[in-house]
Please model this.
Amino acid sequence: MNVTIICDVLGEANNGTTVAAYNLINHLKSQGHNVTVVCCDAGKKGENGFKIVPTIDLGPVINAALARNEVVPAKPDAEILEDAIKGADVVHLLMPFPLAWKAVPICEKYGIPMTSSFHVQAENFTCHIGMMKSNLATKEVYKYFYKKVYSHCAITHYPTEFIKKDFESNVKKNVTSRVISNGVCESFFEPASVQAINRQKKRNHDKFTIVVVGRYSTEKAQQVLIKAVARSKYKDRIKLILAGEGPKGKSYKHLAKKYGIDCEMRFFEHEELKEVLNAADLYVHTAYVELESIACLEAIVTGLVPIICNSKRSAARYFAKDDRCLYRSWDPEDLKNKIEYFMDNPEELDACKNKYKTQANISRLGECMNRMEQMLEEAALTRMKEA
Model:
């Protein structure tokens, strides 16, 4: 197949959406498909298969706000888009933003079927304008996404049943879709070496180590964990690892220093993150907004027990086996109590580790990418049938 992928935001693989995009691109190429990617990542200029559009200039104030959140949106260029689209068998839209909006009428002009992925919750947008908890804002954003992108697609990919129901209940429409996990990389299913685990434990000074993985941003709410540890009677026994990077980094570092918490904050590459998870004692998932949370699934397959924010805006809450592994959203006191329960009852923590380690409903990356490929092939066939 000739597949064109429209990426409104693409850059460093330091967030779930970008990782998912690269996973799909690399898989399709590995299967012999001809893949063209349209994005505004200047670092890809001259690289085979990439067509680069400019970035949007929204003025100094908005540009600065976007830069703080490490978002560089693409500016649609009709000529570049048409060149990338007109020979495709299927066009896949990664995000419901301006580059995709401009691609839609071009696809329709040439009769090329479109598919899309649902990687953006309304709250990922509304959190930047102080309306993350507004149901009305969520509904209006989703209606706009539907009008501009999803109503035009032959098939839409939802990473979870949770986001499918959430989106379709807000827009009052059902779209042809497939629910396909973004998938956990195969290597996380294999344990790290004893040497690597011991090395990590030594770095952590053999403290009780708690890990949270995610971008430092408003909707991920890592500050709740920092405050929970600060309140704990075991504060001095705990090593806290915030794996990630993002606009809230300085704020979190200041908070951890203020409370005197042994806290490590940085981005971990894939293999080192696997070692960190294997050597940890507990995983906490603080995100208030979450489409799927591959990070939480990666922790679970290593055998870690998760304590998860019980937010109605998060799919991750469904991973919890019981109430001991859920805490009230935005409540550091409740989270502190859950952490201390497992520290006070190590035999319960071990029993829970075995329970999570053996759960069999986590999808591996390879099988998920095969299903994505099948979805694109199915959509491409609709053009042939119409012809």
User: Anything to note?
Assistant: The first helix runs from residue 16 to 30. Residues 194 and 235 are 27 Å apart (CA to CA).
